Amino acid sequence: MDKDRIIVEPRVYLVGKSHFEADMLKAFLDDEGMVFETDTKVDAEILAEAAGRVCYLSFGKGRKSNADYLNNIISSHHGSVLEHVTWSFLVTGISRSLTHELIRHRAGFAYSQESQRYVDESDTRYVLPPLYQENPELRATWERAMEEAHRSYLGLVEETDKFVAKKYPELAGTDRRKMVRQSARSVLPNACETKLFVTANARAWRHFVEMRGSAHADAEIRNLAVTIAKVLKEESPNIFGDIEIVSEGGIEITRVGYSKV
């Protein structure tokens, strides 16, 4: 198999995140006769702190540092405050096997995934499982399986297109291609690369990183969880600062200070 069609690691693009409207919060504070200052410039951290302070109208009172405030929120497991801020990622280089597991994370997540009914998979790429990256013989067996599945897909597309064109001549081109691909895709393996747009709030991301970054998680989704955790720690150290990336048994995993926030 052409090496360019074999993928060994995911690519993650941060494409969206929460935005703080300072003027609107100031308008609220002015109306209520309150003053609020914070020492962070990260929009997500400001929003999470403001949301928490609304609960007790504690603007200008108590903990002055955003880091201290959010650490208290997180250590107290007051996780609902973190649901007000989100990050959106575009992820490529992942398999459909991975997304079958990822979409089990439901609360706080939104997904938009590449469709095999509309997208031609003739040039699709395949994600090599991490375990097979360690063994040339197993990798060769896996590559042969991918090649056979790919040939089957191409053959089915060609023959099914002829069949559909003859039986349903009234179908428009787009509808015919969709009918062909939705049937032919059934022989494609879980290793097919897919592209995913995924958005989640901070609480949901923490849960994902904790569960899927574990040494006990599937190896491919663990690599993704670690990659995303690194981005989120850079994005918001006050929300994700208790999450560590450590090496255990030669692999990178996540370790969370405050579990199940």
Structure report:
The protein is built from 9 helices and 8 strands. By secondary structure, the chain is α+β, with helices and mostly antiparallel strands. Among the domains are: 19-83, no CATH class; 86-114 and 193-256, Alpha-Beta Plaits. The strands form 3 sheets. Strands 2-3-6-4 form a 4-stranded antiparallel β-sheet. Strands 1-5 form a two-stranded parallel sheet. Strand 7 (243-248) and strand 8 (251-256) form a beta hairpin. The model has no long low-confidence stretch (mean pLDDT 97).
Can you summarize this structure?
The protein is of the alpha+beta class. Among the domains are: 65 residues, no CATH class; 93 residues, 2-Layer Sandwich (Alpha-Beta Plaits). The chain is built from nine helices and eight strands.
Shape: elongated
Give the CATH topology of the domain at 86-114 and 193-256.
Answer: Alpha-Beta Plaits
- Amino- and carboxy-terminal Cα gap: 45 Å
Quickly give the CATH architecture of the domain at 86-114 and 193-256.
2-Layer Sandwich
Largest sheet: 4 strands, antiparallel
Q: Radius of gyration from the CA trace?
A: 23 Å
Low-pLDDT sequence parts: none
Q: Within the largest sheet, what's the order of strands?
A: 2-3-6-4
Fraction of residues in helix: 40-55%
The tally of beta strands, per DSSP, is: 8
Arithmetic mean pLDDT:
97
Instruction: Tell me the β content.
Output: 15-25%
Secondary structure: elements and pairs:
Blueprint: E1 6-7, E2 11-17, H1 22-32, H2 43-56, H3 66-75, E3 86-95, H4 96-102, E4 109-113, E5 126-127, H5 136-167, H6 173-184, E6 193-201, H7 202-212, H8 219-235, H9 237-240, E7 243-248, E8 251-256
Helix pairs in contact: 2-3, 5-6, 7-8
